Amino acid sequence: MTNTPSKEQSREMLKWLNRNRLDLLDFYRNQYVAYNAEGLIAHSENLREILDLAQASGELYAIYLVPRSTASIQILSIRFRTVSRHNWQPNYHVKMKHRDVEISTTMLVDSGAELSLISFKLGQDLGFALADAESSLLAETVGGRVEYVIRNIEMTIDGHGFIAPVAWLQTNTGGEQLLLGREVVFDRFNIEFRQAEEQVLFTWREDFSSQTPIPQ
Fold first, then answer.
1. The CATH number of the domain where 23 resides is what?
2. Bridge-partner residues for 157, per DSSP?
3. What distance in Å separates the CA atoms of residue 98 and residue 96, rounded to the nearest whole number?
4. What domain count does the chain have?
5. pLDDT mean for each 10 residues of the chain (216 residues)
6. What is the pTM for the complete model shown?
7. What CA–CA distance (Å, rounded) separates 153 from 116?
């Protein structure tokens, strides 16, 4: 079966994730979990294993990398206890592919992030490696400095494929939150946040349909 959910299926799956996110943080921190609107399918610390388990189930699924921390919100090394009565995060399903590894995962849509961000763990599991003599870059954050390198990756959102840069962290910051940032992504989609309805709406910009993807 295809593992591409419809928009309605995707919304229902994300509702399940938001309802159960705190339980996942309690029991499966720093693990990949495969889930759908009906519940948890499988969990593992190994990306290839979780993909095999999820595919073997025959169920529609998405992958979520559960952060290490039980803090409600985390931005790199800074943790904030929730002060909001509306326990919702603007997560969205994104397919990412590097070479022979493809993952349908869940990313936090972050309009304040210039680049999309993946953790050190996920980058390793996708097969990224540093080139000989390659130097890390430094980013200034509210929690201090972090090291990262830029990698281009294939992304698919709502059936639209493109290549976008991601910042691959070079240190374990204590959190594994995947961020979907502005670079390329926000140029190709109009994005609307509807917190009251617990929805993020992505609308493909037709003026980008004929443009050549960024080369890897």
1. 2.40.70.10
2. 160
3. 7
4. 1
5. 78 93 90 96 95 94 82 43 70 95 94 90 94 84 77 96 95 74 96 94 80 44
6. 0.76
7. 10
